[in-house]
Structure formats: C-alpha cells, structure tokens
Specification:
Strand content: under 5%
Number of helices: 16
Shape: globular
Helix content: over 70%
Structural class: mainly alpha
Radius of gyration: 22 Å
Largest sheet: none
CATH topology of the largest domain: Growth Hormone, Chain: A
Number of domains: 2
Order of helices and strands: HHHHHHHHHHHHHHHH
CATH class of the largest domain: Mainly Alpha
CATH architecture of the largest domain: Up-down Bundle
Distance between the termini: 48 Å
C-alpha cells in the first residue's frame, strides 16, 4: 500500500505545516541569496563565502546550549522564539550594506536556525511516541523538499527579473515565512520543561523509597544535575556517533556544488542536467522517503539500513566517475543512474540516523542531544564544499572512489558506535534502580 504523503491529523500534521511554511521561504532564499549579497549588497564572492563559513561555525556551537534551553524552558516556547529570531535575522539582510553587518546578520541567522532545529526535535520527542518519530521525520523531510521546490520556483522568478526589488521581495518572503511558522507552532500543545519532569520523577522516587525517606530521589536528581554540568560532550559514544554521521553528511553539498562543478569541468554533459538531477532528487525524497523509513523500527534495523546505504553511495560515486571522458548522452545516462543511487543512499542514511539520534539520547535531554547531533549538518555545510571540490574536481575518478570508500567505512563504524552508546544507555538506566 502506498504510504500516506500527509501525516495523521493532530500534532504531527501541525509540525508538517510548520515545516512547509518556512521551507518555502528558505527555498526562495537559497537560490537567490548568493546573487543578492554579491550584486545588490556589493560583497565580493570570497567575502560572502568567508562570512557564511564563520556564521555556520558559530551556529554549530550554539546548537547545544539552545537545545538545552529548550529542555529547561520548554521546547514549544523556545521554538517559537527562535522562529521569530530567524525571521528577524533574515529581515536584517534587507538593510545590511557592508561586510561586518553581513557577518553579524549571518551569525544571528545561523544561530537561530541551529537552535530552532534542536528545539523542534525536542518538541517532536515530547509530542510523538518513540515508535512514531522516524516515520514523522520522514514525512517532515518529504514536506521540506516539497516546500524547497516551491520556494526555488519563486526564487527562479526573482532571478529571471534580476531587479533589486525582486531580491528584496524574496528576503521579505523568507522572513514572513518564519513568522507564519512561529504562529503555526503556537497551535501545538505545550511540552513540560525538563526541570518539571525531574521534579515529578524525584517526587515519585521519594515516595517509593524503602531506605531513608527522600534519599533516593535526592541522589537521582543530584546525579542528573551533575551530568547536565558535564554536558553532551562527555558522552563519548554519542559524540563518536555524531562524528561518523557528519562524515556521511558530506554528501549534502553534492547536488548544489560537487556535481555542478564535476559536470562543468570534467564531463561533456550539458549543464542543464544539473537542474534535472536536482528535480530527480527532490521528487524522489517527496515520494519515497516515508516508504524507506518504514523499515527502520529500532537500533538494529537503523544500523543495518545505514550500512546498506554506505554501499549504495559507493556505487553512486563509482557511476558518477564513469561520466567523465565519454560522449554527452552517455555522460547524462551515467549521471542519472548515479543520482538515483545517491538519493536511495540519502534516504536510507537519513532514516537510520534519525532513529539512532533519538533512541540513544536521554529522554529528558533530547533538545541538548539533538542540538549536538545537528552540528553534523552545519559542519558538513562548512567543510563539505572544500572537501568535495578538492576530491572531485581536483582528483577526478580517484576522488570519487575515495569519497565512496570513506562513506562505506563510516557507515560500518556506526554499528560498533551504536552498540557502545546503547550500552551506556542501559547502564545509566540501571544505576537509579540500583540506588533505590
């Protein structure tokens, strides 16, 4: 039976609607921002690249504390404030007229975006049962792609017009889309902050203790607070898992940067094929991400799917490499086959990593842990362009094979890393019971 493209009514559908509203604005922003900053603001391309690199570096550092804020103060309110903050940051791009203001606005934008992603994950975890999370994330990914596609079409109209007013209109649209997103998020039920959940847990433990009244509850809360001070970075198994996932996410700039440069510099294929590959990828994710995620139901199936996706990605890299040095239409055929394999690998890796990131995070610190896990996205966005340019354009076929080989190694290493992290979760679960 074909999976539903729309999630069930209730919080799941509201979360998808929030995703759709701001992704339309983001899609328009992504395809026009580079030309806006260079042609309208007047910044040199190198300065735009440097500013965005600095901004996403700051954003990657802000994800963890903002995720912790969502745990402590409540994820819905935090997500609403960060959506408003993102809209304000995008709005500030309308008036920046220099490198320093641009960097400051970009840092605010990247920080709010990183925090918003973490707060949304914490909100999702509080509203949806563990067994439904991966399926909902698949729906959200499909919704994201649909919104980006619509937004990219609107951005294309602005590019066709090529006027300052058209570019400003796109930025205004993106800013408004985050304001609408904040309003949609307010329709969701509230989720209790972690502090409230701790107090309730401590009260229950205190009432059921068989030794000195209240001692077990106090010891449990003290242990949690000490763990909070140490932070997610002290959770080494989860940190290793995040690092390996970051390696797998180096595929992210492939469609936007790696393949366009490869097609232009190394193949005889027409440049319009780049747009066709983007449409193929977006459409496939919209139609099949939910179906792909259905087979992921726990840690074992998640690691199995990630491992399989590593081999599929290796196949994609090998086929992409074959597109060099051949006739234009043979190159087009190889690129299309490679793109199909690449999107299959992408959907499997996404579904598996979602399951692992939630199942291996403490239930009362989801925002903090998701903020940390999400740094893989910002690091991939920051380092991916440099890595892919060096490997693919610089090395050619050996670079493709190296990229595929590294992906296979990282995907296989996720298995042992998951077992270590799962062992840590079991041990931490047993300790409070032993204390009682």
């Amino acid at each position: 039976m074909t999976p539903r493209l729309v999630p069930p009514a209730g919080p799941q559908r509201v979360l998808a609607l929030a995703q759709l509203t701001n992704s339309i604005g983001d899609g328009a922003y992504y395809v026009t921002s580079a030309l806006y900053f260079t042609h309208v603001v007047g910044l040199a391309p190198a300065r735009v690249g440097l500013g965005l690199t600095l901004a996403w570096a700051v954003g990657s550092l802000a994800g963890v504390p903002l995720g912790r804020l969502a745990d402590r103060r409540g994820p819905r309110g935090t997500a609403v404030l960060l959506a408003l903050g993102t809209g304000a940051a995008v709005g500030s791009f309308l008036v920046v007229r220099g490198f320093v203001p641009f960097v400051l606005a970009a840092c605010a934008y990247a920080t709010a975006q990183s925090g918003l992603a973490a707060a949304r994950q914490a909100l999702l975890a509080g509203l949806v049962t563990a067994g439904e999370r991966t399926g909902l994330l698949a729906h959200l990914q499909a919704t994201l792609n649909a919104g980006l596609a619509v937004g990219a079409g609107l951005g294309g109209l602005a590019l066709q017009a090529g006027t300052r007013g058209a570019y400003l209109g796109v930025l205004a649209l993106d800013a408004v889309s985050f304001l609408v997103c904040a309003g949609v998020l307010l329709r969701l039920p509230g989720v209790a902050p972690m502090a409230a959940r701790e107090s309730g847990s401590a009260a229950r433990e205190s009432g059921s203790a068989t030794e000195k009244p209240g001692s077990a509850g106090r010891r449990s809360v003290a242990s949690v607070r000490k763990s909070d001070r140490l932070g997610v970075l002290r959770d080494r198994p989860y940190a290793v898992l995040t690092l390996l996932n970051t390696v797998l996410l180096l595929r992210m700039p492939l469609l936007s940067l790696g393949l366009p440069l490869w097609v232009a510099e190394r193949t005889a294929a027409p440049t319009w094929v780049v747009s066709a590959l983007f449409v193929l990828n977006t459409g496939a994710v919209m139609l099949f991400q939910v179906r792909t995620a259905r087979v992921v139901t726990g840690l074992a199936s998640a690691t199995r799917v990630v491992r399989r996706s590593g081999w599929v990605m290796f196949g994609a890299c090998a086929v992409f490499a074959l597109s060099a040095g051949v006739s234009p239409w043979v190159a087009v055929g190889a690129l299309v086959i490679g793109a199909v394999l690449q999107v299959v690998a992408e959907m499997g890796q996404s579904a598996g990593s979602w399951q692992l990131s939630f199942d291996l995070a403490p239930a009362d610190r989801v925002g903090e842990y998701q903020g940390f896990f999400g740094t893989g996205v910002t690091v991939a966005r920051t380092l991916g362009p440099l890595v892919l340019t060096s490997l693919l354009v610089g090395w050619g076929t050996p670079g493709w094979l190296l990229l595929g080989g590294v992906t296979v190694v990282a995907s296989y290493a996720m298995g042992p890393a998951t077992r270590r992290a799962a062992g840590r979760v079991v041990e931490e679960t047993r300790q409070p019971a032993l204390a009682r």
